[in-house]
């Protein structure tokens, strides 16, 4: 099964935004109120995304120290978000960008809010918080400058993906995140999104007890498991290959040192040995740039490793809504059976009430009528609940599948581009290696020139 999102994969692609005169987050006609809060979203086809109105980048990272919630000193990294209206850029003006600093934990809070508020959307993942699938020469320290830089690029990619999504990009909370440095957390918590979050226990219970889940979502869930498994295996294999490749290249550095020292004691072969040593040194040093470039492609694969969990989150939400619908339907059927038994006086199933009636006699007509009236009210409420759950489930299926198809298109485009670029990089590396084969030819000539 294949999957697809439409947004860019590199910071340079944020320049794709077009000239749009309206600088507001979204017009009133485009916004749909959600639960009376500030959360709004454009859902009509052809709606204008935030990326078309605003240039967004995470310009730099900075290490800071401060006290945490329990009054203990800690060191953390903050990231500078810069935004600029696109109409000014399109008109040739170059105003100073608005800027603010955000911690990684604030990005996590934003994503958690988006997941709860838009459970039918495959929300883009954040870059890894701590380095995974690293080869031994790469630091796993989350304060390492190289890791922080790669995470900065990943955070920018996350914002661009969210800002280019037709629904997510027009959420007012996202706009607050990008433009309001202070008070943003309070605005998020005021939405009450945490109370709407589904507990893991409920989701797990629904997974095992739901009966009639949509086959498409079952297939999607299996696909996400396979995507995660295959991608993690590929990243592990790549780390092992990087270790071996690094070792092979660096061994030639030792050859270079030996040849350079040897050239000092040889008269006829001195120049040739020194030239061979220089080539060996250049060959050994080239692996650093090669593996650094490889890390860029590894990060793109890691993004889709984390996308697998985002896919499963949408599938779990479908299972939960379907399970709630089934529970509401069973409860309604049970009440209708009780009404039928009470109306006819025929008890078809064993119940405690039926046993007490046999032991102590039938209840008074007034009690029976009161119970019938109560059951009728409960049945009416149950029918309304079933209709509501049916509509909720159908809406989730429809919206989720549209977004999953969008994700599939994005995934195919991104991975195809990343793998092609990786192959081009490998070809380039092989050409560099071929160029450095010269020392072998030099040594061969030296060998045959010896008396």
Automatic annotation (TrEMBL):
Q: What PROSITE patterns does the record tag this protein with? A: PX
What are the PX domain coordinates in residue numbering?
57-184
Keyword Protein transport present in the record's keywords: the answer is yes
UniProt key word Protein transport: yes
Q: Which UniProt keywords apply?
A: Protein transport, Transport
- Basic and acidic residues: bias regions: 12-24
> What GO cellular component term, any one, is given?
early endosome membrane
**Stated name of the protein:** Sorting nexin 4
Task: Provide the family line.
Answer: Belongs to the sorting nexin family.
Q: Which GO terms describe its molecular function?
A: phosphatidylinositol-3-phosphate binding
Q: Name one GO biological process term.
A: protein transport
